[in-house]
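User: These chains co-purify. Model them together.
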Amino acid sequence: MANLRGTFVRLAVALILVSTVFGAMLAHAQDTPMANEIRVSVVAGAMQDTMTKLVEKYQEANPDVTVTLELEPEGGAFQALIAAGNQPDLIITSFGPQLGKLAEQDAAVVLDDLPGAEDLFARLEPVSLQKLYGHYYYVPIGADVTLMIYNKALFEEAGLDPDDPPATWDEFLAAAAAIDALPNRENGDEVYGTVFWNEALQWGGWYWNMLQPIYLNANQGQCQLLNNLATDIIFDREECALGEFFEFAKAAQQYAPPTMEKNFFGRNIGMWLQYGYSWEPNLQSAAGEPMVIGEDVGVAPVPVPNEGDTSFTTFGGRGMMILKSTPEREARAWHFLNFLMEDENNYQFITELGYLPVILALQDDPYFQDPARQPFVELLAHGYVPEQFATADSAASALQGVYGQVVVEDSVPLEESVATAAQKAREAIQGS
Amino acid sequence: MITSFRRISASLVLTYAALTLGAIAVVYPFFFMVNNSFKTGREILHSPTALPSTITLIGYTGVFEELDVLLLFKNSLILAVSITLLNTLLSALAGYAFAKIPFPGRGRIFGFMLITMMIPGVLFLIPSYVFIYNLGWVGHYHALIIPSAVSVFNIFLVRQFMLGIPDEIVEAARIDGAGDPTIFMRVILPLARPALATVAILTFMGSWNDFFGPLLYLNQPEHWTLQLGLLQFRGTVPGENAEQIWALTTLITLPIVVVYFFIQEQFVKAFANVSLSK
Amino acid sequence: MVSSRALDTPERAGAVPSSLFLRIKRSRWGYIFVSPWVVLYLFFGLYPLVLSFYLTFFDYSFVTPENRTFVGLGNWIDGVTDSLFWKSLYNIVLNQTTFIVLKNGLGLITAALLVRITWGARLFRTIYFLPVITSTVVLMTIGDNLASPGGPVQKVLIDAGLIAGPVFWKSDDTLPMIIIALINTWKWFGISTIILLAGMYGIDPRLYEAAVVDGAKGWQLFRYITLPMLRPQLFFLLVVDIINGLQMFTEVFSIGFNVYGGINNQALTPVLYLYAQAFDRSNVGYASTLGLLLAFLIALLTALQFRFVRAEAE
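Assistant: Joint model of the three components:
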């Protein structure tokens, strides 16, 4: 009796082991990539929904091709996919160091000479295109800009003209001071002239995109962070006016709460310099009732140092890249990319997902000429794509660190701000 | 119990007071989470710590509309249960072997096993992925189940517990002619229930809460787990979909709490006999 | 189950089998039972490990593997002299010292309180264990929310007059590691409580009775009886905590620092740095080196702990 039991146990154990470890190995051979497949990586949520619809449309017109959508891989996962040769064909990723990294690692296809490339690029906003290492590696699909948004109600209360937002730094500081002096709200909230997203200083170089317009205005578009080869920073040069940037930020910070916690949508902040077009949904969820551009809030270009200066902005948004694989897959990905960039399809993408048009023809479309959106579109021509090199990210992070010390914590004096920032940034780049 | 303390009721009151305060401090963040799941996004942003002015189910209805919650739940469950069952069985076997079967080389293998616990798992990320991809397992559940079928920590735990089982019981069974499988099934398993329950709950919880594994290996929506479902609500704008995120987080946490509540007695017993000897 | 066989096979009763082969044959189930783990580890543990070790001698990127260059001991020398690596070690030691002391201390105190009550013990135990079974990512998000400069915790501290204004702890040099340790303590102290409580339940009450007769009071009972009897549990906790704690990664990753632990690397832990090297800089060879260096340090610490215990026992 006992022996039978024991044998049964032994058999059962052996069966479990064998079947789980080896049965699975035998049953599933490596999935061969489907013939005529294009794999596109998207972000879950709204983008996935929009892309699903576009994919359906594409497949109707191209029945022999299958387009599969997959999740945009996070950081480390992406490297793993590439290492295994399992990477997607087309990625739609945010502007920033990711693009630069893929270009640098030679993982992305150079687009310059692909069929129809010249014509495609000619249709696009020139400043939204940025060459990396001398070539075009991405096609922008939609953009976003930073500008200033202000609370009209608070303006009125402070005795300022709600239809005449501040255009220069001095006007901005005066307005901020006036609003900051207003009494507390009913619910006890203090009123502030402006707000900066100081928590985001720690999150990495992308936040520099929000601060950069002030800096660009200070030097009137002469400098970004790096030189053309991305080997060294240039912002410690006199003409880049980084010192003025720090001065203004510090002056403005005194009218701002320490962090974004008391954010703009609580209706107790006068102006916000970091607003972007895609933040419109937040207006819907503002405290009390939704804010409407034109009625409760107004938008304006980021203030400039002197009257008559040009106001610049930084681009946010996404670009498409084709990852290297086989010539056939790359060609198919390019074909799908061009489909997405047809006026009609791109229009659907950017209106559903809240981007601004990079296709010049679409900028004149009535939807984007609407008073709620037109100010944003106007700024597109003065935009700068963030520097996409990996070194830019390190330099920006270092700069943000010093910004925190100079502007927020007051632990580094203003006179030393530029030198300290330059030193830290150089150290950061050295380590790359 | 320590009988001499029982007579002093003032200190007993203090004890309860301290414990209650501690309990409140511990529970508060959960309360925070559940509280926010019943608020509108606007309220979450502007008054995160207050009670909801009106209880809304927007978060929950949003979750159920956007996601096939039952499917996600099923997927998470399949993964968690498989990994838990395998782990419990295999670590029980190995733990018994390390504790009670004196086979040559046992010490060395155990030492080696301990060392492997110290190597950061991040190192294995890419090589594991490449290997699993070449096996063709990417996109299938076994990519996650097989590599996690037995973990060193679980073996360690079971072994420590089984060291506390008196050798005499095992010896007596051996003398009676029982082979190790029989001893395992009829003698050890019933005694080891606390340790096995501990392994079960810890493994279940590890698998249930795993985010990065499914992200890497299960990229088709039909295979998504609950944790991946959270991605659906990650918008480009901070504050977007806040209601759904808190609601889903609450939903994800609920099952484990329930499971734990039923197993916890065993859990306590498991650690009563942890032994020092190697 | 008594059988007559016990009487007529004197060898079985205790004689040691003579040859190695016989011993293996007798204890074959030992091998069979550990084989699942061994097999799995060979494929999913050892193979990646050996590969990683192999890669430490190269300058290697997984994206362009054909560009790899042999650098010999270059990575190892760089690793040992890397100031960021040492900074990350400093960070994690700061963090873990705080964490281990607080977590187990709090667990001890809670267990000591729980052991005195009968009614409600089960309820309290469940409550204290709640954070343990919740996902780290979720808890870090909640903790981040609560501890932020505009959050409730700081508000309470300001109202109580303990701090002057909102504290930007994320940009401070030492606070991030300490605050993460605090959040982690809150998450994990429940498990210390349960383990130590179980140990306390197992202490023979007669020990206490005897000591009371000798005139010992409450605190002395705790110090001279409870604590020593809890040695196995405390040791287990210490060993496991150190091994796991030195590898902390998810916590910093999910609380809003970039992969370098913030602008001044104030939240950089060794494994985070490893991750940054592997996935941000594509320096897989160097990352592997760092990982193995860390593993070596952990092994050293653990071995020291075991030796210390053995020396004490003698």
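The interface with chain B takes residues 2, 5-6, 9-10, 13, 16, 20-21, 24-25, 28-31, 43-46, 48, 70-71, 73-74, 76-77, 79-81, 83-86, 263, 265-266, 278-279, 281-282, 285-287, 354 of chain A (CB under 8 Å).
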